[in-house]
Amino acid sequence: MITFAMRNLKLFFRDRAAVFFSLLAVFIIIGLYVLFLGDMVMSDLDGVSGGRFLMDSWIMAGLMAVTSVTTTMGAVGVVVDDKAKGIAKDFYTSPLKRTTLVGGYLISTIVVGVIMSMVALVLAELYIVGSGGGFLPWKNLLEVLGLIILSTMASGAMMFLIVSFFKTQNSFGVASTVLGTLIGFLMGIYVPIGVLPSAVQTVIKIFPISHAAALFRQVFMEVPMASSFAGAPREMVEGFQTMLGVTYQLGGGTMSFLGSIMILAVTAILFFVLGVWRMLLPPKR
User: Fold this and answer.
1) Tens digit of pLDDT for each residue in 76-103?
2) Alpha carbon of 61 to those of 5, 18, 130, 166, 196: distances in Å?
3) What's the predicted TM-score (pTM) here?
4) What's the number of domains the chain is made of?
5) DSSP-assigned letters across all residues of 160-185
6) In a domain? residue 285
7) Domain containing 125: what range?
8) Which secondary structure element, helix H or strand E, spans residue 189, and what is its range?
């Protein structure tokens, strides 16, 4: 299983185009924020102490959630490639157990997601510090590392199930393009969730990986929030967090940190089971 996972990792990182396009949405978000979004969101925070640090942390937290999705989507492209080239049939007729193949695909997908998310974390921290902010405290950094693993597992399991329905690179490419286009909206990055219609907000809140964005924001923004809103009324702080998707209002209450973690954990388990079931089905002739 490990040997097969290593084979998949080598195939992914050998394809520089696949690596680049898996991070394309990240580069687009950073570019849009530097050129347009940064000035737009900062216009509402004139006079707020540490406003730039606060909003840089907000956008970079959302970027971390986006990375967990786009990089795992790129990693599971190996599955489609094996199907398109007929390599999967060779594997199925070999002495390798089907569970070994599935495990290898899943392990390589999660490893790719974690590695690329770590790269995104370094870039995010450098950008925040370069813009006048500060590095994450050690406690928050450890929390981010834990969230990277959890969000990557949830995203990887979901992407693995999705690509199990694709048999050609063309269909996979279209799906990747659509996902890369929508993911910024689903994470509430391009437009703050609080200004969207209630129906759209509901869609975002029930999209499991959007909870990863909320969790990353809570950790990334803990220090700048404490500075920018020192002495501010609680209602003001809660309204700001709801507007920017730092916390979600569901069922008349606020989704807790633990609640969002549970949603990601259940998502990882559920889609993992469904993905394994799909891959263990005998291939159609």
Assistant:
1) 988 888 888 887 777 777 776 777 888 8
2) 29, 23, 16, 31, 20
3) 0.91
4) 1
5) HHHHTT--SHHHHHHHHHHHHHHHHH
6) no
7) 2-280
8) none
